[in-house]
Amino acid sequence: MKKIFIYFLLIIILPITLKAQQDSPLYKDSIQMKWVNEKYDSMSLEERVGQLFIVAAYSNRDVVHENEIQALIEKEHIGGLIFMQDQAAHQIELTNKFQSVSKTPLLIGMDAEWGLAMRLKDVERFPWNMTLGALRNNDLVYQVGKQIGVQANRVGVQFDFAPSIDVNVNPNNPIIGSRSFGSNPTRVAEKGIAYMQGMKAQNVLSSAKHFPGHGNTDKDSHKTLPLIPDNKEDLEKYHVAPFKKLIDAGVQSIMVAHLNVPALESDPKIPSTLSKKIITDYLKGELHFKGMIITDALNMDGVAKMYAPGDVDYRAFIAGNDVLLFSQNVHIGKQKIIDAINKGEISEQRLEESVKKILMAKYITGLNELKPSDPMNVIQDLNSADNLALTTKIFEKASTIVQNENKVLPIKKLNKKIAFVPLEQTDYDTFLTHLQKYANVELVQVNNPTEVNLLNDFDEVIVGAFLSNETVYKPYKLSSNSIEILNALPKGKKKIFSLFTSPYGLKDLDLSNLDAVTVQYQNTKEAQAAAAQIIFGANGADGILPVDVNDNLKAGQGIVTKAIKRLGFTAPENVGLSKKNF
Fold this sequence. Notes:
alpha/beta, Rossmann fold, 2 domains, elongated
């Protein structure tokens, strides 16, 4: 009787399981599933549970760290690694070594939102998402995703924990900000899809994050558990909406954030990462997501302050996650899950669902035919001419004019006396050099508002505010001294202001004393060159604000200008760039 019951149970369960796999964005074909099933069937329970864990590996630590990682691979049978920093060649060497001792190929991941430069030294970065959000042309975003995929393939990485599709509606957000494509859910989704499809073209996994949306908070989940105050209607309208669209577009993975989301989980002590209501009932149930679900890093204080290492891993798996990222104690977490399976508290079918998703992901990224990577000339390959050309094009197309009284821009008459005033940092050489390619522009240092009389003899004044581009998390606000200088600029002059940081830098500025305002989003050489070209008409401006800045500056605003055709007057060529059309 028992055998008959099991037989009929299999008749019911197997077709359902097969259908779920075929509906998954990780599914490729029957050959893939044959490999997946054979791998799964050959594993012990301990090996299967080990596949759930991805741990952090560093290329700048000593042999003790390397031996610890190797021990986790050989003894705990972990499923993958997330590489943090810092040397590309050594990372390749370690990847080759670790892959060679792993019974099942490791899924290698990185946080590479703006390319491998996010984690590796000496690699040129792609523009931040906020800059990409200013583009009208989403094909350029696709090209960024594709080129990041090329970079990932070069160093043996199969999984990029990107794109961030958080809808940033809070200017004081300390952790998202310029990592967001903007404050409009539709545009965020469009750009997230383009980025994801670019990586997919290179067989690199993407992971939309940070579900259900980290954009409406002023707290950092690395340090605490942020509250998302939106009711369910607003949460779905603004923050969940991009995730729904990426699910429809076939995103292969979603990363869940450490958030307090009362609209979806009534218990404030249960972070979204550990909430069965949010992951199993909502993400899998209501949103019908059948791809791989991965936690945000489990060492972050948003969860790590609440639960001990290992215990947090167990709770995350119970909630419905497939991959446990940045585990701090694999052994304890594994044993808790194994014990729960042996007691019947977790079904073997539940484990099979997650492990087979992971194996499906390994197959579609080519790990079924693993080949070692070559560290030779890796930095040159990562910093390709195509990447530089793409980055240059993006900064040109993202340049945004938000104010242009009496069509001051572009400057048409070049025989005027023009002053350039730098504010904030001193990193302005590229901007000044490019301004001087078009006209006789004189550098004037104005250190405080009382010195604006130094500008009295000039016809036009170009002011640039240059904030740090070292990290996406740096403050965007201008100093009180810079604001006072802007407000004190002499009347009767044509005054042009270029902002080289987040558009939120305009939030508290009075722009009434300025004739023209451009936003460049970042303080890079490419952004500085692009700003000069816009000001003098070597290129036209085409960018739009990606976020609501204040009541006067809304997402979608952007004044279009056209390039000026002058005899012998063109945009400076980027010497040595690829001729590829982006």
